Every structure is written in C-alpha cells, then in structure tokens.
Amino acid sequence: MSHVREGRRDRILRAWAAEHSLDASSLDVALRNGRVVLTGDVGCHSDRVTAVGLAEQCVPMHAIENRIVVRAYACDPEETDADVRSRVERVVGLVVPRAAVAVHVHDHVVTIAGSVSSVAGRRAVHAAAARCGGVHFVIDQLTVVPVVG
Fold it and tell me: How far is residue 117's CA from residue 100's CA, in Å, rounded to a whole number?
C-alpha cells in the first residue's frame, strides 16, 4: 500500500476514533481498485450512517463501498431489564474493573453513566455494553476523568 493510500485509511480510522458516540472497535478500511471499502459491524443504523459520513468527509471525491453491517438484536422479549442490567454490569466490570460506571436499562436500552480514566476505557465500556445479549442500544453518558499522579 502506498504512503498516500495509507494516509487516507489513517484519516478515516482517526476520525472514527475521535467520534465518541461511535463504537468503531470492529470497523476497518481497505483501499481496493481506487475505492474506499468500509467493513465491520455496528450496533445501530445511526452508527452506520455516522461511520460512512465521517469516511466521506475524510476522503471527498472518492468512491466509498459501504460493507458495514448492523448487528442483529440478540434479545429474548421475556428477559427483564434487570437481567440485562446484571449482564452489562458484569461485563463492564470485567472490561474496565476500576471504572465508576452506573448502568440503567429501560426496554432493553442501556444508559451508561459515570467516569472512566481514558478514552480507550470509555470505548471499551461502550463496546462491551453494546455487545451484550438483550441490548438494543447504548446511550453513552460517560465522562473521561484522567487519573493524576
């Protein structure tokens, strides 16, 4: 891959990483035959639109092939919000053990609030919650508060 082509890919990856509302942990970019090919999965249609829009801003005037898919809902309608909350809390505790994160669930929509020590931690918490069974959507109200000292 040439330096110029790699620069386009890096611009898109950086834009995705900078967008706090987007879980881009499974997204990737390839450059094939003059086309920008976007792959991976996201939790909802709005994340897919955000990812494509950012790519278009980074590489205007380039053909974009969007292969990003929206993950299917893994949801048992009989499962309670309390069950989902318990699962999300357990997974978040494994991913970022020292994070001060509160989890609220209403109709399988998860709200995560509190603080984490890094942007990477924020993304890890968001991604872990979004990938839990029974979660339709994640509302991310986390703040990043770096640990000093």
Answer: 9
